[in-house]
Amino acid sequence: xxxxxxxxxxxxxxxxxxxxxxxxxxxxxxxxxxxxxxxxxxxxxxxxxxxxxxxxxxxxxxxxxxxxxxxxxxxxxxxxxxxxxxxxxxxxxxxxxxxxxxxxxxxxxxxxxxxxxxxxxxxxxxxxxxxxxxxxxxxxxxxxxxxxxxxxxxxxxxxxxxxxxxxxxxxxxxxxxxxxxxxxxxxxxxxxxxxxxxxxxxxxxxxxxxxxxxxxxxxxxxxxxxxxxxxxxxxxxxxxxxxxxxxxxxxxxxxxxxxxxxxxxxxxxxxxxxxxxxxxxxxxxx
Length: 286
Known about the structure:
By secondary structure, this protein is of the alpha/beta class.
């Protein structure tokens, strides 16, 4: 009896968006991808950047730098603009530049069809009451998630799926982000808010916080998961928030901590002011 024909391994694409100072994270991240990510598979690493990249084991795709938070809001615009570059790949995964793989990541994360997507349960909310999840709740936003919707809160730092499903999701998030912009709106956590909205409608395969694990945990005991992909602790002031004062940064973090309280008790004008401040500033692990 002749041997069964070998089934070819799927072709994988890893997407890294790194403009300006985030380029400093690219070499260590790509090295860790080469060591741990789908070893034995055909892996193409794409670096979407506005700077020169000297290494020859990546495909460089040009994008325009945008100041924070527009660079986050436009993640999926960048992906969609270069969709032709991903032809021939079976799966695409978008990973934040300030990440580092520390253990093997492979076929266990591949999704089923449909919907053909995977999402990481956010390490900051996996054990928290839903009232503390930071969904967009403004009904004017296309990212709005109602009180009776949503079973998990997903991290935006690592997401992927089949190429077809991932590009369809990217297009939808791009369109929704643009629709909000035309209405003068920015979702509370930018691309992550729109990602969570999409996952309400297209539930992904669940990945544990192991796949977006904090390098430095600042709030009690660390999550009880074995880290596979680290979200690196970084100098927000020097990297993301050029020209933004440390006082403003700390104010934004304070707003996030008291957000469940002010949702219930603060008057609407003050809520709107604090939401604008919150949208402009990062949180731990973002």
